[in-house]
Structure of LysR family transcriptional regulator:
Amino acid sequence: MDSGPGWELWRTFDAVMRAGSLSGAARALGLTQPTAGRHIAELEATLGAGALFTRSARGLQPTETALALASEAEAMAAAAAALVRTASAPADAVTGVVRISASEVIGAEVLPPILAALRAKHSGLMIELLLTNAPSDLLRRDADLAIRMTEPRQQALLVKPVGRIRLGFYAHREYLARAASIDSAADLGRHGIIGFDRDAASIRSVEAAWPDLPTFALRTDNQLAQIALIRAGCGIGVMQDPIAHRDPALISVLPETFHAHLPVWIAMHEDLRSTRRMRLVFDALVSGMTAYIRAGSERPQ
């Protein structure tokens, strides 16, 4: 009985979907470009549904058939990667691979010292860090553990709330020294406000929290870039208090008027709780994020 296309073909299909070219997919998978091309041709022939990609000046463009198959191929790729991680060490060992999903800001600004301390104690751990502002699907095993800013609603997850990160408006002292004084929210109209560009959901969240905020003068959807702009003295923007408090040159702007809180949860699939390395990393994230939130509650003197 024909069992359909093998995983090798689907893996190449998923890689082409991600890379947008045969050459990019081949590099990602360690294949030659002709081999990747043969895999796609064989998959098309086996499925009998016509072409999966068309060529254009921008590379390979997926057809409607390819787009319909993409989510299932992604799920297969995630499951295969999870199998590799699971097999990387015995369940009772403090070695092997653990994949963590976190937002860009948490991953770049908060997790490095937490992971450094963890690896100093357990050098056999191998950490994969997935930085995305979209929630990873832990049931599909896109990641083993996740740091979430929205409460996980999926069943079969082990979830631990760790507190709320305070957000505030900040600017570099050099910017404030050369800019107009700020005594009330009305004064912000004379300043460069740093915010989002095309991320509609984030723009709505900011507008809901601070409806009187002026139009953004410096716009980017990359939150790490927003932080960099604030640090460079480009204007006023939102930062997590614990991050801002590390830099004495950053000054809180109208803290009583412009502040909000970002709740934090640590989550993993409940089936992983018996895997020692997963539980150890879960506990380290809970401890580290709790300490981060607590340490940021007051600016160091």
Q: What stands out?
A: The radius of gyration is 23 Å. Residues 91 and 275 are 5 Å apart (CA to CA). The chain has a mean pLDDT of 87. DSSP finds ten helices and eleven strands in the chain.
